Amino acid sequence: MSDAICRYGDSIYQHGPYNDRIYLMKISRDDVPDIISLFEKISNENNYSKIFAKIPASVQPEFLDHGYRVEARIPGLYNGIEDGIFMAKYPDESRSRGVDMEEIRTVITESINKAEKRSNSKLPSGYVLCSCTPEDADAVAGLYGETYESYPFPIMDAGYIRETMKDNFRYFSVKKDDILVAVASTEMHPEEGNVEMTDFATDIRHAGLNLAGNLLDWMESEMKDEGMKVAYTIARALSYPINITFARAGYTIGGTLLNNTNICGSFESMNVWFKTL
Hints:
By secondary structure, the chain is an alpha+beta fold.
């Protein structure tokens, strides 16, 4: 189960009851302000509790005028020149409440403190980094299914994994004895010069070995070669392991998206981390 991905003009958005939201994933300036009115219509028809938009700073005023507020910012997200803004509107204000910001700030602070004590731990003997191919799709989807009770995109579906491999997604894994034990992906936006580091999962039997950190280091190197200028992630705000992984890799916190994503069975707030490559 997942929400639909739709196109309006040259913009791309996702919406549906699974995440109970609209998510503007890619925007064309030519579609503003008409797309804002479209979202009002869709939201009213479906009683969505959140509208969430990733936009360049140049169109921020139009969204502010329609009741959106800033939740996160990434400097230079668009080709290293223009800031990216994550904005939200809450048709149902209760969606923005009930967030333990004190606990989230504790996770961020402790992650940054641990980053100062970063150790250059390499892959243990017997573990190897591998680029995933369509033949790995079943194993990738299987590990995601074991890791996440729910997820905003259908990554538990091997068919979805294969389809995204044809687009601007690349999947990276760690294998031991030819068995996939950790995975992550990159979603590249070449026309924007940025990449999302996402979909991290590690088999619990191989936890505590910094497999995600090793994957992230490798992914960054590959994305630099692809010409990406800025990397970012949208990470579960209360998950120490993933926040520590990005803090240790030199990422900077950009903000928190409130009750943003249906992941692991409930709506969770998400931290935005970013890094210039």
